[in-house]
Specification:
This protein starts with 6 loop residues before the first helix and ends in a 10-residue tail after the last helix. It folds into 2 domains: 62 residues, no CATH class; 142 residues, tt1808, chain A, CATH 3.90.1570.10. The chain is of the alpha+beta class. The chain is built from 6 helices and 14 strands. It has a 6-stranded mixed sheet with strand order 4-7-9-10-11-12. Strands 1-3-2 form a 3-stranded antiparallel sheet, covered by helices on one side. Strands 6-5-8 form a 3-stranded mixed sheet, with no helix packed on it.
Length: 225
């Protein structure tokens, strides 16, 4: 979806008229960027790639909108580190890769997100790159998002809509960073996702049992009462 050739003119017009960009009705309540069209806010994929290549922020592309992700909290990072420490040794010599360093996920609907964690066992993901030469993944079987106040609504709905289009995805795990809580979206034999939770533990293929105690070790996240 190429960017509009009139984009520079649109930006200049927006500056002169001081048009306040219209926030998309379904956009999550995180810091967002309305980049080109001051009326609709949508941009083409090529324009997103250009902006992303020159931005210090972590940018996602969803539904034609560009989103700059907020800096994660300390508990968010501790949870992520606990997951990496638990998953990494169990994936050794399995042919699967743990994705945790900000690698972008390209969804079938061309959305591009930066999941907190992912696991892929697909050989195609080991050499996949986008148009700019940046490493990407397209075929994970597990995705993990750590919820924050600014992203939890979208992680539970908007991203799920994009993620469940990935044929290889069988597990989508949501973990809260403010209270000890997790929910699993698991694809059933009929191809539909079933919600499990809130749950105290979950057993994942290859990765074994994952408990709240493992997830929230050495954090200040309170238990649910």
């Amino acid at each position: 979806m190429p960017a509009s050739a009139s984009a520079p003119a649109n930006r200049q017009s927006a500056r002169k008229q001081k048009v306040k960009p219209t926030r998309h009705e379904n956009a999550p309540r995180e810091r967002w960027l309305n980049v080109l069209d001051p009326k609709h806010g949508r941009v083409g994929l090529d324009e997103y790639l250009r902006i992303d290549a020159n931005s210090p922020d972590r940018l996602e592309y969803r539904g034609g909108y560009i989103f700059a992700l907020a800096v994660p909290s300390g508990n968010h990072e501790r949870i992520k580190n606990n997951l990496v420490a638990h998953f990494s040794p169990r994936l050794k010599n399995t042919g699967c890769d743990l994705i945790s360093g900000g690698v972008k996920l390209v969804c079938p609907n061309i959305d591009r997100t930066i999941p907190d964690l992912g696991v892929t066992c697909d050989e195609r993901d080991r050499s996949a790159m986008d148009q700019s030469g940046e490493a990407i993944i397209e075929h994970p079987w597990l995705l993990v998002e750590i919820l924050s106040p600014s992203t939890q609504g979208d992680d539970r709905s908007g991203k799920l809509d994009s993620y469940r289009q990935i044929p290889e995805l069988t597990h989508y795990l949501l973990i809260d960073s403010r209270k000890q809580w997790m929910v699993m979206h698991e694809r059933g034999p009929d191809g539909l996702f079933v919600i499990r939770g809130p749950i105290e533990s979950v057993t994942l293929p290859t990765l074994g049992e994952l408990t709240l105690a493992i997830i929230y070790d050495d954090t200040t996240v309170p238990r649910m009462v």
